[in-house]
């Protein structure tokens, strides 16, 4: 490695935000043709480091080198001009524009008088889309795509320029397995062309599948760099969180109670049809399926956000109508939604207020909000979920993605619901917290809660569920118990093959 | 550690920036004209700001909930005309509740359109600005409305009375500010207003009844307008159909000066009060300096931009915006 | 075959003078079987008024009455009407001289004379009080840019030094034809000037606003209030002995005169080009000669 | 046709449906209520409508791009008045005395420059300070109006130049000068917004500012250009209008911003930015003008006009919402 020069080298980077030292002398380099993983717990500083590289944040100290040359990234434009492509953790798309315009955002091909060269644009885009093997075309409006497909549009941006370095910040957070395969092909192609790739992810299996080296950050500090081939999950985890992780599968089995929630022949227009299932108290039911399978829509219906066109919902045997989330909450249902920033949090509000929002009417001292009670609720769940924040006064918008997610989970746990629905609960969450959350879900069930877990990660559903509902295209294909389920049968069911019913 | 504490000083400054600006302002004008800070003048400014101020309190709720209210000016004309008309017809004791009821109906209508039907508040209240003006003209037949017996009515107490030497409009403004300030800062409802304005979708996902919250904000706004109309009517015991015309923008300017964000979710009653006072004292100060009225326009322009700019500059820790 | 007469008014919603004018105009036209009218309101916007002129021309009305939003800006539109063979009658406030060629007649008050008369009322009062050698006054003018406001201020400012050369006009600020605005302006004047002997307001609404301010400050007794366009509020304040004088001008007369002028023009009668109707002085002394204004 | 294209067309077309309604209503009501013998939908009357739409319409095109860009401009009414003053006053300046009627293009140019500069100043402030455009232009709406008054006190600024009036009143192929300007501006801004990189970037910025920044689009200059464009168009509107009328009151153009914004929103532009079209705006402008004209045609009095205009605005918004409802199973947020 001594004679090959790194494409990129960051040295001793320091970055502080008010009250937070997000990066504390971090060094990091990427070789040409290398896939270099950047790992660390939520809030460790991964995204911040990459934003410094991408010119979005200016570092308070340290230097960036490209090849031999020391560079200053004054802004995204400059970073891009230097061949650095950034695939963001949070979707960074203009929904009203077409796929083509989004992929070439900021560098639309021009003709005379500043006109857009539509023909070239479309041709180039189609070529890229073909490589990505997606079902939409250059003219599709991005807002009409599913989240996963929008992520594919982001990824397509990596292929537009002759990149020297590409940064993927949790690109797979909302992708399903099929799309991941495509993504990994893209990465392999880039790698062959000698591009240096930085890959941020919390998913160990991916890291071990595609990366060459792993750099670990903890609390903004550099922990070390490992050769992927010479290490293992346990070692990486240890470096990340400073302790070992208990990864035992689906630990406690306990007595199940009555049926807490039952759904019979539920349909909602064309979103999903004739869905039936039940959850007992004390049980965790996993919902697994491909993108667009309709799981989120079912959850939204159960939370009073959609009106079903047919079917019945029974809570503890009683037929109920849920007209609003307030209704659902009153009847003991909680939903941790899929889109944390859009649906889960008021970003400009502080941590405490976000967490107690659904119960603010009940936390009263006279006519006023009982702030002391709020703070103790916050403290309790901060400790329980290990939320990293300078204090309850911090604006949620300033927390790292994973810690934000924990605030949402804490918010709903503190409601002590009888039915808890979690939609992609660990999207963007580090391994340590992830296993905490899994344990939490199991222990909640053990305490008698009925839990529904929607997830696009097979290990996750397998790990936490007592039973698994496999969905395909708005229909329930099959329900597995944890004893009978195998990876193969599950994949078959969610692909519309070999289920009980025809699709 | 040093940087952190310096930042804290910075953010203290940012939080109190509007107060500091206010203080500088008052000192400047006082140096220019000694009468500026005389008790008489201060009372007179605060008293005439009270009407604008009371309306600004309500609009603060609307703005924090993420909406606008451009109808308050013409609604205030409506309340004033109605209460004056009813004063002679059914007596002040009934006229006042009747006027409140009618004004609240208008507020409820807007609240229904914006809250429940989710129509855009800028356009809805713009439409209502015009429609209520039409309504007022129809109601009054376009005539001035004057109380017949101006000397003999106790109705004048709201606009012209005083308790312990403090004019009632000032007392009403400040006590309403205190009350609404508590509601906004300390009650569950206030919390919901911030949540709905900060992220309406997330608020809904948290079980907050967004429509009802927005609706209530418009009711509060209309209630404030009714109080303003009451003070106005009582102050001159007679009125034209256009008393409130144009006030909507002044009110909005005051709320913005106070640091409320038009995106919703940000703002406080206390700062709105400061914003109101700043506007009132600018107008008055420039008049005392004998400058033509249009200087007031130019100065207000500069003050608004400077105040909001410094406010956000302090928050982001940089004077110039990072926009490339 | 009845006459079709179109009118475009300045800004009906702005005060009761204009509303009363509109109502009186409609009533007068309805009372006359030979007349049909199209009544339009420009809402104070020149562009809208010009569009309304065009609409009336396009509808081929027999005569157009215009209450100009801007005495110069409407001239080309007036020319268009006269080129289309439609006689134009200007009402309430005149258009500029350049446009006289295209106008059949002007009907309305003489605002400059009104301003002058207000100056005389004020001056006479000071002489009676014996303070005409030292009196200090302030002026509250109408809506900035409004012809009537400009002309009244001009008439007042020109006449005052002629009759009372030693009276000083300390400051002028606009009150926008608005009682509340005027009250605020007066409050500041009261703080700023310890000695105010008279206030001239561009109309009585503003005059009464100023009076209210002075009453609140306990200084009303020392001040002579003179206005213009005697509104009902002004008349009452005069009766109460708080307000000194004004100019009597009836919107009903104004409207009827305009309609009659148009009818006369259409009937081919000889009408004077400047068809002023008289607007006499009214003060506490002679007010019983006048009925209380209806607006 | 792509799926959904029809429903999309319907939604975008709400304003045109409303225009048709207005035409039908005023034609029928006019039969009973109007004393005019000429029909409302008379061809000449419609041409007149186009001309009368110009002052608001020309500015509305600029507002469309500014709003799509995610900003708003409340100061256009004042900019309109400033440009008018520059136009009319500069024709009387002694230095141009020798120019004869050539002073006209010079005055036009100066007025347009002034408008562009004031627009750009707004843009520059928004860009450099990061203060929201609504606030910046709410401020300059006052500030620029103050400048108007500084110029000539409370008096109107006037200069009637009959050559200019004749040009402005002229008709070419049956269309008045103002109509040509309106059509040309509409076409120009349409091309700008749909065909150029600047236009597409304006959409991107309005849609997702952060994404645009991350993609290296220089948000500031784009915004400033759009503010300069609306300043230019406010001035152009003034130049076209005051060439014909020759005198400006210091209060002229007041409330124009509100009418313009209303037209743009009725035309389907999203108030939060990112979506909207010039064609929709054109419809919005026509709809408003038609409403005013129609109410005059049927003899509605002032209080009714105010009431009806206000309620109709709300009704159109309501209609638009109903057309865009997603069906019962939609997410209720
Ligand atoms: N704009 C900001 N203002 C204040 N603090 C910030 C800001 N951006 C990040 N931080 C803080 O910096 C730290 C690092 O955040 P960063 O987003 O880099 O974490 P991360 O490693 O990407 O985490 P995750 O895996 O959850 O995405 C966190 O404590 C976060 O709260
Ligand atoms: N390829 C696609 N193109 C366009 N729209 C799609 C596509 N895939 C899904 N959608 C639509 O996007 C919406 C949301 O998709 P989403 O992925 O959230 O569905 P989901 O099954 O509930 O999600 P998940 O199961 O991943 O939680 C669905 O209504 C679906 O109809
Ligand atoms: O009082 C004024 C009246 O005299 C004038 O003619 O029109 C405007 C009015 O306010
Ligand atoms: Mg991150
Ligand atoms: Mg989903």
TrEMBL record, chain A:
This is Ribose transport system ATP-binding protein. GO terms for cellular component: plasma membrane. It is a peripheral membrane protein. The keyword Oxidoreductase does not apply. Keywords: ATP-binding, Cell membrane, Membrane, Nucleotide-binding, Repeat, Sugar transport, Translocase, Transport. It is found in: Cell membrane. It comes from the Bacteria. Residues 8-244, 242-498 form the ABC transporter domain. GO terms for molecular function: ATP binding; ATP hydrolysis activity.
UniProtKB/TrEMBL annotation, chain B:
PANTHER family: ABC TRANSPORTER PERMEASE PROTEIN YPHD-RELATED, ABC TRANSPORTER PERMEASE PROTEIN YPHD-RELATED-RELATED. The keyword Plastid does not apply. It comes from the Bacteria. InterPro entries: ABC_transp_permease. This is Monosaccharide ABC transporter membrane protein, CUT2 family. The keyword Transport applies. It is found in: Cell membrane. The chain crosses the membrane at residues 12-32, 44-63, 93-115, 122-142, 162-185, 213-231, 251-279, 286-310. One of its GO terms (cellular component) is plasma membrane. Keywords: Cell inner membrane, Cell membrane, Membrane, Transmembrane, Transmembrane helix, Transport. Pfam families: BPD_transp_2. It is a multi-pass membrane protein. GO terms for molecular function: transmembrane transporter activity.
From TrEMBL, chain D:
CDD domains: TM_PBP1_transp_AraH_like. Part of the ABC transporter complex LsrABCD involved in autoinducer 2 (AI-2) import. Probably responsible for the translocation of the substrate across the membrane. It comes from Roseivivax halotolerans. The complex is composed of two ATP-binding proteins (LsrA), two transmembrane proteins (LsrC and LsrD) and a solute-binding protein (LsrB). Signal peptide: none annotated. This is Autoinducer 2 import system permease protein LsrD. It comes from the Bacteria. InterPro entries: ABC_transp_permease.
């Amino acid at each position: 490695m001594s004679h090959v020069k790194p494409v990129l080298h960051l040295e001793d980077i320091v970055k502080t935000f008010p009250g937070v030292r997000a990066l504390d002398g971090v060094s990091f380099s990427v070789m040409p043709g290398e896939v270099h993983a950047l790992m660390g717990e939520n809030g460790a500083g991964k995204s911040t480091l990459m934003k410094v590289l991408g010119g979005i944040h200016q570092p308070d100290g340290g230097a960036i080198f490209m090849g031999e040359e020391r560079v200053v990234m004054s802004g995204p434009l400059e970073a891009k001009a230097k061949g650095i492509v950034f695939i963001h953790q949070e979707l960074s798309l203009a929904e009203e524009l077409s796929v083509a315009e989004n992929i070439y955002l900021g560098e639309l091909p021009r003709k005379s008088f500043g006109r857009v060269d539509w023909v070239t644009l479309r041709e180039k885009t189609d070529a890229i889309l073909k490589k990505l093997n997606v079902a939409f075309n250059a003219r599709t409006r991005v807002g009409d795509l599913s989240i996963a497909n929008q992520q594919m549009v982001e990824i397509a941006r990596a292929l537009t320029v002759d990149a020297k370095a590409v940064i993927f910040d949790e690109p797979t957070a909302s992708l399903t397995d099929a799309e991941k395969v495509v993504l990994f092909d893209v990465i392999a192609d880039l790698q062959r062309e000698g591009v240096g790739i930085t890959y941020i992810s919390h998913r160990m299996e991916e890291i071990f599948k595609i990366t060459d080296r792993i750099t670990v950050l903890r609390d903004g500090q550099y922990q070390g760099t490992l050769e992927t081939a010479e290490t293992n999950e346990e070692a990486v985890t240890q470096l990340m969180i400073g302790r070992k992780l208990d990864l035992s599968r689906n630990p406690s089995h306990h007595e199940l109670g009555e049926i807490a929630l039952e759904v019979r022949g539920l349909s909602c227009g064309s979103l999903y049809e004739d869905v039936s299932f039940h959850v007992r108290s004390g049980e965790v039911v996993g919902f697994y399926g491909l993108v667009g399978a309709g799981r989120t829509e079912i959850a939204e219906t159960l939370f009073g956000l959609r009106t079903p066109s047919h079917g019945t919902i029974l809570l503890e045997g009683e037929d109920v109508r849920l007209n609003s989330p307030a209704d659902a909450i009153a009847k003991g249902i909680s939903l941790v939604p899929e889109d944390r920033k859009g649906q889960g949090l008021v970003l400009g509000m502080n941590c405490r207020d976000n967490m107690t929002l659904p119960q603010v009417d009940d936390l009263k001292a006279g006519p006023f909000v009982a702030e002391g009670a709020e703070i103790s609720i916050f403290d309790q769940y901060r400790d329980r979920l290990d939320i990293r924040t300078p204090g309850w006064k911090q604006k949620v918008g300033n927390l790292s993605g994973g810690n934000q997610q924990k605030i949402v989970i804490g918010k709903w746990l503190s409601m002590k619901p009888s039915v808890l629905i979690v939609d992609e609960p660990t999207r963007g969450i580090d391994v340590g917290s992830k296993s905490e959350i899994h344990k939490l879900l199991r222990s909640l069930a053990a305490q008698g809660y009925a839990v529904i877990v929607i997830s696009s990660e097979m290990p996750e559903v397998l790990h936490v569920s007592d039973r698994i509902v496999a969905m395909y295209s708005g229909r329930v294909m099959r329900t597995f118990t944890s004893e009978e389920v195998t990876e193969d049968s599950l994949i078959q069911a969610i692909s519309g093959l070999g289920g009980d019913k025809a699709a | 550690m040093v940087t952190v504490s310096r930042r804290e000083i910075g953010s203290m400054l940012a939080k109190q920036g509007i107060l500091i600006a206010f203080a500088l302002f008052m000192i400047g004008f006082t140096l220019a004209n000694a009468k500026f800070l005389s008790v008489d003048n201060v009372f007179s400014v605060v008293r005439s700001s009270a009407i604008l101020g009371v309306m600004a309190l309500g609009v603060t709720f609307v703005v924090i909930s993420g909406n606008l209210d451009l109808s308050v000016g013409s609604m205030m004309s409506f309340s004033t005309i109605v209460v004056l008309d009813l004063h002679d017809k059914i007596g002040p004791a009934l006229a006042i509740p009747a006027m409140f009821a009618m004004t609240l109906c208008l507020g409820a209508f807007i609240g229904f359109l914006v809250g429940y039907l989710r129509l855009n508040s800028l356009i809805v209240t713009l439409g209502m600005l015009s429609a209520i003006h039409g309504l007022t003209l129809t109601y009054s037949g376009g005539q001035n409305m004057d109380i017949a017996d101006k000397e003999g009515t106790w109705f004048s107490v709201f606009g012209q009375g005083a308790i312990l030497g403090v004019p009632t409009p000032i007392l009403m403004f400040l006590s309403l500010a205190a009350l609404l300030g508590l509601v906004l800062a300390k009650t569950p409802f206030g919390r919901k207003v911030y949540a709905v304005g900060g992220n309406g979708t997330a608020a809904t996902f948290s079980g907050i009844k967004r429509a009802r919250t927005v609706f209530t904000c418009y009711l509060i706004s209309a209630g404030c307008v009714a109080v303003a109309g009451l003070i106005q009517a009582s102050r001159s015991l007679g009125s034209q159909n256009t008393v409130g015309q144009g006030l909507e923008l002044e009110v909005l300017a005051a709320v913005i000066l106070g640091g409320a964000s038009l995106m919703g979710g940000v703002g406080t009653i206390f700062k709105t009060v400061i914003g109101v006072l700043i506007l009132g004292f600018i107008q008055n100060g420039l008049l005392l300096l004998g400058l033509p009225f249009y200087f007031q326009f130019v100065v207000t322009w500069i003050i608004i931009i400077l105040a909001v700019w410094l406010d956000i500059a302090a928050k982001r820790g940089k004077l110039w915006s990072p926009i490339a | 075959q009845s006459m079709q007469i179109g009118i475009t008014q300045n800004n009906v919603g702005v005060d009761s003078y204009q509303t009363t004018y509109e109502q009186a105009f409609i009533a007068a036209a309805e009372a006359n079987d030979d007349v049909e009218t199209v009544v339009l309101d420009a809402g104070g916007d020149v562009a809208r008024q010009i569009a309304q002129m065009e609409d009336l021309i396009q509808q081929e009305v027999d005569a157009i009455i215009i209450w100009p939003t801007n005495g110069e800006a409407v001239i080309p539109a007036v020319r268009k009407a006269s080129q289309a063979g439609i006689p134009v009658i200007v009402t309430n406030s005149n258009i500029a001289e350049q446009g006289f060629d295209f106008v059949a007649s002007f009907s309305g008050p003489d605002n400059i004379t009104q301003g002058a008369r207000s100056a005389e009322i004020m001056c006479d009062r000071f002489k009676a009080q014996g303070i005409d050698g030292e009196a200090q006054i302030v002026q509250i003018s109408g809506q900035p840019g409004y012809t009537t406001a400009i002309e009244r201020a001009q008439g007042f400012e020109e006449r005052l030094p002629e009759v009372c050369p030693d009276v000083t006009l300390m400051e002028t600020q606009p009150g926008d034809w608005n009682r509340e605005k005027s009250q605020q302006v007066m409050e500041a004047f009261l703080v700023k000037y310890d000695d105010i002997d008279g206030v001239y307001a561009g109309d009585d609404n503003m005059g009464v606003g100023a009076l209210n301010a002075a009453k609140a400050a306990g200084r009303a007794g020392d001040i002579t209030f003179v206005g213009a366009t005697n509104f009902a509020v002004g008349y009452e304040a005069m009766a109460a002995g708080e307000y000194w004088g004004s100019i009597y001008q009836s919107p009903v007369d104004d409207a009827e005169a305009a309609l009659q002028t148009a009818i006369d023009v259409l009937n081919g009668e000889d009408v004077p080009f400047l068809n002023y109707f008289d607007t006499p002085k009214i003060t506490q002394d002679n007010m019983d000669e006048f009925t209380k204004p209806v607006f | 046709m792509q799926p959904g294209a029809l429903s999309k067309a319907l939604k975008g077309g709400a304003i045109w449906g409303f225009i048709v309604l207005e035409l039908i209503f005023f034609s029928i009501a006019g039969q009973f209520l109007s004393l005019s013998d000429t029909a409302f939908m008379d061809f000449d009357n419609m041409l007149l409508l186009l001309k009368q739409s110009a002052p608001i319409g020309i500015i509305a095109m600029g507002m469309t791009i500014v709003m799509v860009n995610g900003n708003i401009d409340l100061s256009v009414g004042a900019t309109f008045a400033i440009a008018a003053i520059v136009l009319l006053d500069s024709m009387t300046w002694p230095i141009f005395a020798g120019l004869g009627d050539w002073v006209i293009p010079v005055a036009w140019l100066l007025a347009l420059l002034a408008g562009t500069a004031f627009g750009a100043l707004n843009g520059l402030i928004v860009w450099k300070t990061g203060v929201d455009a609504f606030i910046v232009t709410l401020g300059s709406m006052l500030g620029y109006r103050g400048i108007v008054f500084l110029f000539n006190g409370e008096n109107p600024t006037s200069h009637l130049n009959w050559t200019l009036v004749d040009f402005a009143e002229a008709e070419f192929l049956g269309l008045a000068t103002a109509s040509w300007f309106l059509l040309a501006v509409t076409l120009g801004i349409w091309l700008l917004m749909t065909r150029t990189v600047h236009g597409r970037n304006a959409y991107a910025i309005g849609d997702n500012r952060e994404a645009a920044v991350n993609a290296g689009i220089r948000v500031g200059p784009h915004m400033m250009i759009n503010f300069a464009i609306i300043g230019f168009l406010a001035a152009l509107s003034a130049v076209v209008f005051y060439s014909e009328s020759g005198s400006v009151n210091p209060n002229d153009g007041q409330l124009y911003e509100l009418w313009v914004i209303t037209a743009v929103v009725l035309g389907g532009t999203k108030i939060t930015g990112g979506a909207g079209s010039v064609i929709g705006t054109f419809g919005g402008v026509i709809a408003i003008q038609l409403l005013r004209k129609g109410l005059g045609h049927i003899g509605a009095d002032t209080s009714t006009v105010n009431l009806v205009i206000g309620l109709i605005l709300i009704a159109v918004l309501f209609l638009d919402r109903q057309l865009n409802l997603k069906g019962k199973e939609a997410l209720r947020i």
